[in-house]
């Protein structure tokens, strides 16, 4: 990330912990709609910085840097020198969190594979047919129309087409778990896809909703299949760019 983007990011982060710049840790009363909007911004930024997994002491050091910048004090370090170190810290902490996420998901995957009618494929996908469909299955180059719901293993829903209408896209332009799993379905069918991270969004995830290393659970209804094409409605299961 370029220095300018880092400065914008931390400048915005300042809003969410602006009390630090005033030298107090007291909570600010959230009253007006604008207060609530700014508070919501703070929640969003907090989720985005969660990759660093900061301890209380580390957060205090970050706050000190924010205060020094805002109050025009001389910095304790050369930002040009440490910018790359910040990026490396983000990668390191993100990897640690991803490994922890994958370890926590291991028991879930083991249990899911033992559920009635569950089929575990060579890729690690756990496929369970919830309702049988009819006709042929889609090829990777086909365009499919689906309704779906995406969840983390704790049941937290991170995306749903039911909120905005069916999604339509080429089957070879989505995560590997979907290309394989939806490719096993037939029109009118419904299935549950349990996707280990390596055939979903990997160690990077899609913050803030999908942590790095996360196993994902999808309930998918295959509504229709059409010939190959490019384009289609963006979905929560689309590949990261």
Features:
241 residues; seven-stranded antiparallel sheet; Chitinase A, domain 3; 36% helix; 5 helices; alpha+beta; elongated
Number of strands: 7
* Spatial extent as radius of gyration: 22 Å
Strand residues, percent: 15-25%
Please provide the ordered H/E string of secondary-structure elements: HHHHEEEEEHEE
Mean pLDDT: 83
Domain count: the total is 2
CATH class type of the largest domain: Alpha Beta
What's the CATH topology label of the largest domain? Chitinase A, domain 3
Morphology: elongated
Molecular structure report:
- There is one protein chain.
- The chain has 241 residues and is of the alpha+beta class.
- The chain has two domains: 3-76, no CATH class; 104-226, Chitinase A, domain 3.
- It is built from five helices and seven strands; from the N terminus they run H-H-H-H-E-E-E-E-E-H-E-E.
- Strands 1, 2, 3, 4, 5, 6 and 7 form a seven-stranded antiparallel beta sheet that branches.
- Helix 1 packs across helix 2.
- It is elongated, with a radius of gyration of 22 Å.
List the helices and strands and how they pair.
Blueprint: H1 3-16, H2 33-48, H3 56-70, H4 79-113, E1 118-120, E2 126-131, E3 143-152, E4 157-160, E5 167-170, H5 176-182, E6 190-195, E7 216-226
Antiparallel strand pairs: 1-2, 2-6, 3-4, 3-5, 3-7, 6-7
Helix pairs in contact: 1-2
